[in-house]
């Protein structure tokens, strides 16, 4: 048996220091920049999870005005009543080689932004997940953003990061150089040494990909943390208008935000298993879907002759007490009886740890006695129960 004894291992030129350093106690330290877990601060950056879409007939999202969550953790946003009109957001399989999905924006009718109009794609990051960035201290860390983008419309686009608590932002331009070609973009920015990020479950960062911007919200690109104006969104005057032709499309995937390793070079995208990514998304949105006669998986009992209740345990603790939305119709079902279709449903008593709640269904008068067990059942195709705790 042969043994190699060394104190350290470095590259051939020795210019980059020791890659591996061995200690006398047998431990070692290594400079590793790829394949480390939990690097990516963005959830669903590979656009894999899409809980809100349930059937092939409902496979896209129409923002219209305001904001709308689409693929998990991703919003389409229109400010100052900017009208997305017939534009749609959709999860598609068109993507770079190492990815399976992307988010696509399809423009259907032309629109011209004016005033404070903005059309953009946005994701928000929870504040307590950003504490290791040490904002508000002299040790505030630089970060590197990387993403893949594609469009038939070449030109200058803008990316903006907003720090919620400080109401400050950075604004960068990037170019789509070749039509209908996937391009990888990388942006490295300095940490904010002046303003801390609150250690709570509120908003820490907004990451915004601008697609159109009215002249009232034009601002200069800036690499210095700049005071905002009550959360206002900005893009430069060079920002293209994706809505200038009905056939325009824009794609995004492979979004990663990570602490910079000092090189300004993005590491490989952190591919997490689908189940892990889904669980991260379910902290903010949990959807149960089904068709006619499918069971929801929730069991309960009649609390009155016209009411039944269902204790629910969420798959992961949610960010805050969620709101409840029901699409389609439901009833209580058992082997001995079926309740009439519920006329209303409400959520009660969410736990302070946000890991469960109770939902109650009300139905018209029936002969079902109190304290009878039964299961919650969908009574229409493409039905869903959504618990929403988004930022």
Q: Over the alpha carbons, how many angstroms does the gyration radius reach? A: 25 Å
Q: Helices and strands, in N-to-C order?
A: EEEEEEEEEEEEEEEEHEEEEEEEEE
Number of helices: 1
Q: Segments where pLDDT lies below 50 for 5+ residues?
A: none
- Terminal CA distance reads 59 Å
Oligomer: single chain
Q: Outline, from the CA principal axes?
A: globular
> Widest sheet: strand order?
5-6-9-14-11-12-15
Residues in helices, as a percent range: under 10%
Which class do the helix and strand fractions yield? mainly beta
Q: Average pLDDT across residues?
A: 92
Q: Roughly what fraction of the amino acids lie in strands?
A: 35-45%
How would you characterize the largest beta sheet?
A: 7 strands, antiparallel
Topology, number of strands: 25
Structural account:
The protein is mainly beta and 391 residues long. It is built from one helix and 25 strands. It has one helix at 274-282; strands at 8-10, 18-22, 28-30, 60-61, 66-69, 75-79, 88-92, 102-106, 118-126, 143-151, 155-163, 168-176, 183-189, 203-213, 222-227, 249-259, 285-290, 295-304, 307-313, 323-327, 330-333, 344-348, 356-362, 373-378, 383-388. The strands form five sheets. Strands 5-6-9-14-11-12-15 form a seven-stranded antiparallel beta sheet, with no helix packed on it. The longest helix is centred in the C-terminal third of the chain and has 9 residues, at 274-282. It starts with 7 loop residues before the first strand and ends with a strand.
């Amino acid at each position: 048996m042969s043994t190699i004894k060394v104190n350290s291992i470095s590259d051939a030129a020795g210019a980059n220091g020791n890659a591996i350093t061995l200690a006398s106690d047998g431990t070692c330290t290594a400079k590793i920049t790829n394949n480390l877990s939990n690097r990516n601060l963005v959830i669903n950056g590979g656009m894999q999870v899409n809980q809100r879409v349930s059937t092939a007939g409902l496979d896209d999202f129409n923002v219209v005005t305001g904001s709308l969550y689409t693929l998990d953790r991703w919003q389409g946003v229109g400010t100052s009543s900017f009208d997305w009109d017939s534009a749609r957001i959709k999860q598609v399989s068109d993507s770079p080689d190492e990815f399976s999905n992307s988010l696509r924006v399809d423009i259907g009718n032309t629109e011209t932004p004016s005033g404070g109009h903005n059309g953009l794609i946005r994701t928000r990051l929870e504040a307590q997940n950003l504490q290791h960035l040490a904002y508000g201290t002299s040790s505030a860390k630089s970060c590197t953003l990387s993403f893949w983008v594609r469009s038939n419309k070449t030109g200058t686009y803008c990316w903006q990061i907003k720090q919620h608590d400080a109401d400050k932002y950075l604004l960068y331009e990037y170019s789509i150089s070749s039509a209908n070609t996937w391009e990888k973009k990388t942006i490295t920015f300095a940490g904010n040494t002046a303003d801390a990020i609150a250690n709570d479950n509120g908003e820490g960062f907004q990451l915004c990909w601008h697609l159109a911007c009215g002249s009232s919200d034009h601002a200069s690109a800036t690499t210095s943390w700049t005071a905002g104006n009550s959360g206002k969104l900005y893009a430069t005057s060079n920002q293209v208008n994706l809505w200038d032709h009905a056939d325009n499309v824009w794609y995004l995937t492979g979004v990663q935000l990570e602490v910079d390793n000092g090189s300004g070079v993005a590491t490989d995208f952190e591919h997490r298993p689908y189940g892990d990514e889904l669980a991260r998304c379910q902290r903010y949105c949990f959807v149960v879907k089904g068709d006619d006669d499918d069971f929801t998986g929730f069991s309960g009992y009649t609390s009155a002759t016209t009411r039944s209740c269902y204790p629910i345990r969420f798959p992961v603790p949610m960010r805050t007490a969620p709101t409840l939305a029901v699409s389609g119709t439901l009833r209580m079902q058992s082997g001995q009886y079926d309740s009439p279709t519920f006329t209303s449903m409400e959520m009660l008593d969410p736990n302070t740890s946000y890991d469960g709640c109770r939902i109650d269904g009300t139905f018209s008068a029936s002969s079902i006695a109190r304290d009878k067990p039964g299961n919650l059942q969908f009574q229409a195709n493409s039905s869903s129960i959504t618990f929403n705790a988004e930022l």
